[in-house]
Structures are given as C-alpha cells and as structure tokens.
Amino acid sequence: MFRRSRPVVAAGLACCALTLAACGSGSGSSSSGSGGGKVKVGLITKTDTNPYFVKMKQGAEQAAKSEGVSLMTAAGKFDGDNGSQVTALENMVAAGVKGVLITPNDSKAIVPAIAKARAKGVLVIALDTPPEPQSSVDALFATDNEKAGELIGQYAKAAMAGKKAKIATMDLAPGVSVGVQRHDGFVKGFGITDSDPSIVCSQDTGGDQAKGQTAMENCLQKAPDINLVYAINEPAALGAFTAIKAKGRAKDVMIVAIDGGCTGVKAVKDGTIAATAQQYPLKMAADGVKAVAAYGKSGTKTSGYTDTGVNLITDKPQTGIDAKDSAFGLANCWG
C-alpha cells in the first residue's frame, strides 16, 4: 500500500512514512530515514515486487550499513508509475537526503522532478535505466543495455545456423529507454533493422509474465510460423513460452531474453530459454550508495556512466560468442 508522506518534525522522527512503498533499514539501529547526523541516501525503484528491484534494494541496504549512512526507500506501484516516483523524490528531498538513486519508470516524465532535486544540491544517480536525456542526472550506474541486447542477438543469429528467422519481439513499453536500448541491441546483434521482414510481430509486455503470454498469443495468431522470440526480460519470456507450449511448439521456437534472475537462469538450465544476458542490480545499488556516501562525507561528486557489467548465459554455446554457463549464472543470479 502506498502512502503520502507526513511533514518532518525532527530528524529523530523522520521515518518510513516519508516513502511511498517498502522502507529499507538504515545502518546500525537507525530506522529508514532516521539517521540523526548520518548522511541520508534515497533509493527509488520501479516497483518493490520485481525480484530484480528486491535485489537492488538489498544491495543498497548492505552498502548503507557498511558505509554508515541512513537509507530511505520507495517504489512505484507498478512498472510505468511515474507519479509515485515523483512524490517519493520530493519527499526524500524534503527529508534532507544528500543523494537519490532512481530507476525511472518513465525516462522523460521524471526529468522535471530530477531537475528540481538537483537544483537543491541533491546528487541524483540513475540506476539501470537512464533518463532522457541522460545528462539530466549526475551519473548513471547501469548495464550497457544495448550491449546486452546485442549479445543475445548475436547468439540467436549464430544458433539459427542459417535457418530463415521468423521473429517476435516481446518489448517493454513506450517511453522507457531500457526497453528501446535492449530491442535496438538485439536487432543490431542479429544483423537486421526494424523494417526487416524477418520481424513478423512486435508487442509490448510491460516486462510482465501474464502480458507476455497474451502478447505471444496475439503474435502466434498473426504469424503461426514464428521460430524465434526476443524478450525484454525473463518474465516476458516465460509468458511467451506458456503460449508457445500451448500451441505444441515448445521444441520449435527459440527464446532469448535479458536479465539473469535466478528463475530465468533456471529456465536456461532446463532449456525453456536458450540464452539470457545477465546483469547485476546489487552492484548497481551498492556502487550508487557508496557514491552518495562519498558526496555527503567529502563532497566528492561522481559523474558520467559506470558500466556494471553483463554476461551471456547459456548451456548451448555458439562458436565465437563469449558466454558463461548456467552454473555461473546461478552463482550470480538474483531473486
């Protein structure tokens, strides 16, 4: 349940009521946002239910404890909920945070709120998803999402082994840069453009499993001979697989995805997904908290883009494509 904040009466009373969603604990015995004289750090994720953002929050909490800073957390009600993120950002600025880490739900709509926060001296770091323009934040700690897409595109091209592709793309949603970058990377890696006739269907899924299933059902009605699916993430991929299996085509269609969550890597291990590109949300958040802590303690201000890494995970490697196996993926997954 999301709550609007109450005014801050004193530093000792500032607490989780300042956030809109799940509240992370500060270091030591301090509650979220209480901190006393500690540097305060804010974390705003897209949702508080997706395992990816749960892991991100864990990374932030661990780093906050080791850095001796106080952490406030909030999240959107759903993927795409900009309004809740704007309110959370305003609340955190009012509570006196030195910096905010944010995974934007809407890469463009969040920019005015970010500008207001930065104008008040708050360091704003985007995690995972860059705003548009990227220069609207002080720094970005993220996977190179285009590279992640390119890796699975290259893999899919090699794995098709010259077979004519009939591709369905399970995309994210309009206005979200991460979705665009992953899609564009896949197309580039496969060696085609969006206008190529091999792409026979494209649907938005919101990164949701149920919506992924519906999207794939629609695509199969339009083009029953689809033999390759690109999915924005593993929930969308698993939803697509459900639709494909229901049509009796589970062995005929290759699915590739991005994220590297434990459920997704297990799907690679059992053959449901041929390959996924694994990213590392815990590292993103931990590095972000450390950057805000440094800013609050010494005035050192981070800037620019920091690549937090990506690896292709598959148990069916292709010649010339660098990859790690599912054992590595499971050792480094989240969720």
From TrEMBL:
Q: Does the keyword GTP-binding apply?
A: no
Source taxonomy: Bacteria, Bacillati, Actinomycetota, Actinomycetes, Kitasatosporales
Q: Which UniProt keywords apply?
A: Signal
- Could you say which protein family the record assigns here? Belongs to the bacterial solute-binding protein 2 family.
Keyword Phosphoprotein appears in the UniProt entry: no
> Which Gene Ontology cellular component annotation is one that this UniProt entry carries?
cell envelope
Signal peptide interval: 1-21
Please provide an example of a Pfam family that matches this protein in its UniProt record.
Answer: Peripla_BP_4
What protein name applies here? Mannose-binding protein /fructose-binding protein /ribose-binding protein
List the GO molecular function terms: carbohydrate binding
